[in-house]
């Protein structure tokens, strides 16, 4: 681990497992104070304790990205305890798998509410506070949106999820343009298929193994493959990079 994010405060959504928990450990290891938000407060509390035991600085906050009041409360708690987050990682996401003709309307709405509206509200609240805190002068504002390679793929049995991830990619460019003169850089990372809680069991099934076999390198993307771009987009090194998106998928979408 290094010190590339020393002095930064990063708020990470969906941090109770998978990518979010990994990013919290990564950023803390690089010197950032991390605000880890999720609905499963027992998990994020344990993660915060783990990070602090390792010498890092962490705050667990209850956070439901589908509820704007919850988002605002999480930022309030961060400010009161640590300071204004200057890095926001909008990572929370869900999938309701199934054929488009079978997925219930409630499932579609839950995916849109979490994966698109939740990302929108999380990034917006972060930007409001960065601007108020002087991001125009410091140029230290960073917003990182988590997309997916499904945004440019078809036939994966997750139409609503894929559509929201494509929307997130474009949302990132819209936000980047709107906030570019406010010292805030907004970028999107499109991960490939990684073994996490959200879909890990699928890859142990016959269908999951067949999917892996169909990819050029016949393997899942390692979660650590995201580390360098995630640190870069959060750091001072990305001061002149905004409105971009990068795919990290080990060639799965080729």
Q: Can you give a write-up of this model?
A:
- It is globular, with a radius of gyration of 17 Å.
- It is built from eight helices and seven strands, in the order βαβαβαβααβαβααβ.
- The chain has helices at 18-29, 41-53, 68-81, 105-132, 135-138, 159-179, 206-214, 227-234, and strands at 9-12, 33-38, 57-62, 87-90, 141-146, 184-191, 245-248.
- The chain has one domain (9-247): 3-Layer(aba) Sandwich (Rossmann fold), CATH 3.40.50.
- The longest helix is centred in the middle third of the chain and has 28 residues, at 105-132.
- α2 (41-53) links the parallel β2 (33-38) and β3.
- It is of the alpha/beta class.
- One of its GO terms (molecular function) is oxidoreductase activity.
- Keywords: Oxidoreductase.
Task: Please describe the topology of this protein.
Elements: E1 9-12, H1 18-29, E2 33-38, H2 41-53, E3 57-62, H3 68-81, E4 87-90, H4 105-132, H5 135-138, E5 141-146, H6 159-179, E6 184-191, H7 206-214, H8 227-234, E7 245-248
Parallel strand pairs: 1-2, 1-4, 2-3, 4-5, 5-6, 6-7
Helix pairs in contact: 3-4, 4-6
Pfam family, one: adh_short
Family: Belongs to the short-chain dehydrogenases/reductases (SDR) family.
InterPro entries: NAD(P)-bd_dom_sf (IPR036291), Sc_DH/Rdtase_CS (IPR020904), SDR_fam (IPR002347)
Q: In short, what is this structure?
A:
The chain has helices at residues 18-29, 41-53, 68-81, 105-132, 135-138, 159-179, 206-214, 227-234, and strands at residues 9-12, 33-38, 57-62, 87-90, 141-146, 184-191, 245-248.
């Amino acid at each position: 681990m290094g010190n590339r994010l020393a002095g930064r405060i990063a708020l990470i959504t969906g941090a109770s497992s998978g990518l979010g928990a990994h990013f919290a450990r990564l950023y803390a290891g690089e010197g950032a104070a991390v605000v880890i938000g999720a609905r499963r407060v027992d998990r994020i509390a344990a993660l915060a304790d783990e990070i602090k035991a390792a010498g890092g600085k962490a705050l667990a906050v209850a956070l439901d990205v589908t509820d704007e009041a919850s988002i605002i409360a999480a930022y309030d708690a961060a400010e009161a305890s640590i300071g204004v987050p200057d890095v926001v990682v909008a990572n929370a996401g869900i999938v309701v798998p199934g054929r488009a003709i079978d997925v219930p309307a409630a499932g579609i709405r839950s995916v849109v509410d979490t994966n698109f509206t939740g990302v929108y509200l999380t990034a917006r609240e972060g930007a409001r506070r960065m601007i108020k805190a002087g991001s125009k002068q410091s140029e230290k504002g960073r917003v990182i949106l988590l997309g997916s390679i499904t945004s440019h793929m078809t036939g994966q049995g997750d139409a609503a999820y894929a559509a929201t991830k494509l929307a997130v990619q474009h949302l990132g460019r819209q936000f980047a343009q709107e906030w570019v003169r406010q010292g805030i850089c907004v970028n999107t990372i499109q991960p490939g298929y990684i073994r996490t809680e959200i879909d890990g069991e699928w890859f142990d099934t016959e269908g999951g193994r067949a999917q892996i076999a169909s990819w050029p390198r016949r393997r899942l993307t390692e979660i650590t493959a995201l580390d360098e771009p995630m640190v870069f987009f959060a750091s001072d090194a990305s001061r002149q990079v905004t409105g971009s998106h990068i795919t990290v998928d080990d060639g799965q979408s080729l």
